[in-house]
Amino acid sequence: MSQSDVVSQTFRALVESADRKFGRVRDLPLHGNRSQNHHSFHKVFKAYMRLWKYQQENRTKLVESGLNRWEIGEIASRIGQLYFNQYMRTSEARFIVEAYVFYEAILSRRYFEGVKVKDLGVRFKELRFYARFLLVSLIFNRTDMLNLLVDRFTHLVDDCKTNFRETNFREWKLVVQEIVRFMKADKAFTNIRPLRYCAMFDSHPTSLPYVARFHAKKVLKFKDAILTSYHRNEVKFAEITLDTYRMMQCLEWEPTGSFYPKRPVVFNDHSGASIDHSGASGVIDMNFAADLTDPTLPPNPRKSVLYRPSVTHLIAVIATICEELPPESIMLIYLSASGKAGISNVSQLENSGGSKKSSNNNVLSRISRKQNSSTPEYHINGTKESSDYYENYLWFGPRGNGGPNNLYPGDIIPFTRRPLFLIIDSDDSHAFKAERGETAALFLSPLRPAFKDQSSADTTQNGSQFTFFLTAPLQAFCQMVGFTSSDSDSDFYSDAEKIISTSFSEWEVILCTSTSLDLVWAQVLSDPFLRRLILRFIFCRCVLSLFCPPEDSEQYLPVCIPHLPVSVSPKSELVQSSVRRLANHLGVAEYFKCLT
């Protein structure tokens, strides 16, 4: 047996060993068992690094033995997939960076394109590579790369349909449609500012000393979050919906300006550039990942993103994470789903037999109500009797209206034994006013969205308005009043962001110096992510209270439990003045009562 044969056999054995380990890690649950997951990841990562190093050291002999370029691309793709899966388990930024580095190298070195392959199996590998790279670029917020990948991916699917006419590529066409729809829904105002926590926008020098000095009797650390949404026909890509994507981004750190360098995306298929594709090059600049990582930032809170979970699976994940939650920590649960009847948008409400009612100032969309409203009747103290914990619910199910698909307020009560920050975004969110047990922090969305332009009210096209306010308040404000990014330049929006930033700084001082701030809020105020959510809630509530007619206030206003101080209520002159400044700056003050 020649030396080349020995090298080839060793290489194949390493491939098989790594793939077996990869299969075991891929099938592990994404949630819980941190130590076990870390150990398993380390083993499979070590196997692939050994394989990668071996092919680099023996590349010439492997090429002589018939190694194809796409085989190197498949190994790199597996490593990228491994990193991405670990990112989804841990939310550690370095893993999404490493995944991006490997996928970008595959694309730039054209591992799947070096030879015109007519093998259907290889084409499917290439299609899967593009789909995975699209998801990584989306989460990594690489807009230029996304645009390039969508164009490449679309052409690849069309080429596969032409060359493999007997094969059905309908599923891949749906993938193309999904990403195009997602990017269309998320493209407005994308250049204003990142959704992630950014020191430039979210750390306010004026109020920083007050935040630094603030100390409650008990301080909780934000460690874990569960994010899920379940609506009919909602905007999504792969297993990431638009609402959960926005929340994911909102709960991560944005590196400082010197990081995430905007390397130009230049991969011209027809430029004639002298790129050597004759050999199976396996060199990837793994040091580039260090250039994309900001070592000054603390770790991201771990996020468990559930795609269309069953109620039993959702409860099981909550229980697992509660069990593993470190002492003196708090868990955030974000639930976006339709209420009682499984109605997910305004157009469905109107088709359900409801009557229309326009606002007095003709600003609000004509949002219909059901003649027999499902809004629960609450007692004077804003709560319900314990027998009502299982009367209203969120709806997690593909069809029908059966009990197994219903998540009741009472289902959450056992988990309030641990500190809980609960965000309910639903047309039946106020049912969770009945939630009892240990006191939890609650944000409950309005029962109805409010827009100047009725077409914007369709959550299946634009996502939830409440979630948008919590994750991108200026963009949500502009969408509500029908103000588009084409209406003005970047400096104009930068000034609008400064108005919001100044307001948030003022409100931070109020919260940090308030003597009436409930302990539930005080114990999380030191956390930058949760504090930012509180400030954005204050903004959202005041905006909607001034935008909506008073007789419909309960339908269109969000609720927080327990109450925040009166000094940051919608009736506060200081809070209203902030909305006034923003509305005047954008030239939309006539849409708000008491502002003109």
UniProtKB/TrEMBL annotation:
GO terms classed as biological process: DNA-templated transcription
One Gene Ontology molecular-function label: transcription corepressor activity
One Pfam entry name: SCAI
Top-rank taxon, per record: Eukaryota
Stretches with biased composition (Low complexity): 351-362
Region (Disordered): 349-383
UniProt name for this protein: RGS domain-containing protein
Taxonomic source organism: Acer yangbiense
